[in-house]
Specification:
- The complex is a heterodimer of chains A (180) and B (393).
- By secondary structure, chain A is α/β, with parallel strands linked by helices.
- Chain A is built from six helices and six strands.
- Chain A has a six-stranded mixed β-sheet with strand order 2-3-1-4-5-6, with helices on one face.
- In chain A, helix 2 links the parallel strand 4 and strand 5.
- In chain A, helix 1 runs parallel beside helix 4, helix 3 crosses helix 4 and helix 4 runs parallel beside helix 6.
- Chain B has two domains: 245 residues, Thiamin diphosphate (ThDP)-binding fold, Pyr/PP domains (Rossmann fold), CATH 3.40.50; 135 residues, Rossmann fold, CATH 3.40.50.920.
- In chain B, helix 1 runs parallel beside helix 7, helix 3 runs parallel beside helix 5 and helix 7 packs across helix 10.
- Chain B is globular, with a radius of gyration of 21 Å.
- Chain B starts with a strand and ends in a 5-residue tail after the last strand.
- The chains are: A alpha/beta (180), B alpha/beta (393).
- The interface between A and B is medium-sized, with 22 and 24 residues.
- Chain B: InterPro entries: PFOR_II (IPR033412), Pyruvate:ferred/Flavod_OxRd (IPR050722), Pyrv_Fd/Flavodoxin_OxRdtase_N (IPR002880), THDP-binding (IPR029061), Transketo_C/PFOR_II (IPR009014).
- Chain B: This is Pyruvate flavodoxin/ferredoxin oxidoreductase pyrimidine binding domain-containing protein.
- Chain B: GO terms for molecular function: oxidoreductase activity, acting on the aldehyde or oxo group of donors.
Chain lengths: 180, 393
């Protein structure tokens, strides 16, 4: 079982990202459980989602306290909260950031990967300059880095799962996948 | 052909509603059931259902619309939870008393005060004596499957009783899982055409619904109503079997998980039963003889079958996601304990209240209780009959 915690901010598309991740995983024949909403969400406030992936049915309904990996869709969250809380040693921290992984100065016991999802989102006209929607780019990067699925499954899930701009979102996911 | 879809609990219910296409849906949205109503509204706007969709000014009115529409002869459903169900309160009894087979999806949620939007069973347990059948779901698939079966159970001519289908707020209502959505035509065929009894719209048989009934016949009519829900067990069983034959997932009154040769047992309903399965697997691999009994049907309570399944255990822990302040244990516990009373051989039995207001329950919590059960079985002594899980004292 792989357990992932996804950090974002309200309005950045964390719920849709969870749905696309879940669809991507299920397209490869694996079992998945995604809990994208745990409370009253406000735009801009830190939000999180849990994703469990396994090759057999998933029964556990509790929250994830010790994730194998964490994903951080908004780099400013690193200052606001401890995104590594409970993270297992050797786990990935995948951050939407223009910086290089070593510049983020996480403890050495974690693996760090960065992807400039904001730049990719803006390039593909997703959201606005002030508030780009980075979720599909993040999913593309996460799926590649954690070797969860083929690009075809991601693109199919993105096209079916986004509420708007399926082509642009698919292009963003593909670019992030290829750059990761 | 059935298809795999990634849906949350609310969408799973809405998907069943789309397939069943009831005559009337009347609902007032409330967290965490809102997405059920939203999705149905979208289906209606997109022309995917023919249902009359009514959005009244409150849950009390929503249930009133359901009662009117069901009396008129329609197949009717609603969705709510928590304060919404509480506001339906007086109308729940009327729906049951008039023998109207309305189906309500309940995204189970705590009751105020303090205000809380998360999952527990206080709402439906509060309505446990309203006369409604109560079915609880462990996951999205079960929510979908139970909702489809609910119409067949409630509408059976010997039963004619309204049905709640519960799914834990947020934990199931908002969690995405991949579920098997059955073929539209097959679901429609399984549910069948609704044939109302004495519909108000049958003008050739004019009649009154809900007249006054004092000391002369009220008691007899209530007795008839009770008989309706008492007639439900064989119907629930037959419908669960037929569902298994048609769709490959069979349902009964409860699920037994690794109960062969078990000496210890945990009884827990709904989503927490899933977490408990993982705990049971770990305990079994440590050589513990422990199993899980997951009640699916709480009303009518399958007392004989549950007693039969539990009487040979050495120790049993019943987990309740609601409290009954001042009572001798929480609702599920008192039922299970009472069911065992007439058996000469019966286990020691303890009660734990857990998860109020959505407080998490983890594998390790079940494992801690398993240790306590082991000690009770060894010593024959029960130190605390009821307690709490994952609570600051």
């Amino acid at each position: 079982m792989i357990e992932i915690r996804f950090h974002g901010r309200g309005g950045q598309g964390t719920v849709v990202a969870s749905k696309i991740m879940a669809d991507t995983i299920s397209k490869e024949g694996n079992y998945v459980q995604a809990c994208p909403e745990f409370g009253v969400e406000r735009r801009g406030a830190p939000v999180f989602a849990f994703i469990r992936i396994d090759n057999k049915p998933i029964y556990d309904k509790s929250r994830i306290y010790n994730p194998d990996h964490v994903v951080v869709a908004d780099p400013t969250l690193i200052e606001a909260i401890d995104v590594t809380e409970g993270l297992k040693e050797g786990g990935y921290i995948i951050v939407n950031s223009e910086k290089k992984p070593e510049e983020l100065k996480f403890p050495e016991k974690f693996k760090v990967a960065t992807i400039n999802a904001t730049e990719i989102a803006i390039k593909h006209n997703l959201g606005t300059l002030a508030s780009p929607i980075v979720n599909t780019a993040m999913v593309g990067a996460v799926v590649k880095i954690l070797k969860l699925a083929k690009i075809e499954s991601v693109l199919e899930a993105v096209r079916e799962g986004v509420p708007v701009k399926p082509k642009d979102n698919a292009a963003a996911a593909k670019e992030a996948y290829e750059k990761s | 052909m059935s298809t795999l879809k990634t849906l949350n609990g609310n969408q799973s219910i809405a998907e069943a509603v789309r397939q069943i296409d009831p005559d009337v849906v009347a609902a007032y949205p409330i967290t965490p059931s809102t997405a059920i109503v939203e999705t149905i509204a979208k289906f209606k706007a997109d022309g995917l259902i023919t249902s009359e969709f009514v959005c009244p000014e409150s849950e009390h009115s929503a249930m009133s619309v359901c009662i009117g529409a069901s009396s008129a002869g329609g197949r009717v459903m609603t969705a709510t939870g928590s304060q919404g169900l509480a506001l339906m309160w007086e109308m729940l009894y009327i729906a049951a008393g008039l023998r109207l087979p309305i189906v309500a999806a309940i995204a189970n949620r705590a009751l105020s005060a303090p205000i809380n939007i998360h999952g527990d069973h206080s709402d439906t347990m509060g309505a446990r004596d309203s006369g409604w059948i109560q079915i609880y779901s462990e996951n999205c698939q079960e929510a979908y499957d139970n909702f489809i079966q609910a119409f067949r159970i409630g509408e059976d001519l010997k039963v004619r009783t309204p049905v709640f289908v519960g799914l834990d707020g947020f934990i199931i209502s908002h969690s995405l899982e991949v579920i098997q959505v059955e073929d539209d035509a097959k679901v429609k065929k399984f549910v069948g055409e609704y044939k109302p009894v004495y519909p108000l719209l049958d003008t050739s048989r004019k009649m009154t619904v809900g007249p006054i009934d004092f000391t002369d016949y009220y008691f007899e009519h209530k007795r008839n109503q009770i008989e309706g829900i008492e007639n439900a067990p064989p119907v629930i069983e037959a419908v669960g079997k037929e569902f298994g034959q048609k769709f490959g997932r069979e349902y009964g009154f409860f699920e037994e998980y690794r109960m062969d040769d078990a000496e210890l047992c945990i009884v827990v309903m709904s989503s927490a039963a899933g977490t408990c399965k993982d705990a049971i697997d770990e305990l079994r691999s440590d050589g513990k003889r422990i199993g899980l009994l997951k009640p699916r049907v709480f009303r009518p309570f399958p007392h004989e079958k549950i007693a039969e399944a539990l009487k040979k255990m050495k120790a049993v822990a019943v987990f309740d996601r609601s409290s009954s302040p001042g009572a001798f244990g929480a609702p599920l516990f008192t039922e299970v304990r009472s069911a065992l009373y007439d058996h000469k051989e019966r286990p020691h039995i303890v009660n734990y209240v857990y998860g109020l207001g959505g407080r998490d329950i983890k594998v390790e919590h079940f494992k801690e209780v398993a240790l306590k059960l082991e000690k009770i079985a060894e010593t024959g002594k029960v130190e605390e009959i009821y307690g709490y899980i994952n609570l600051r004292e």
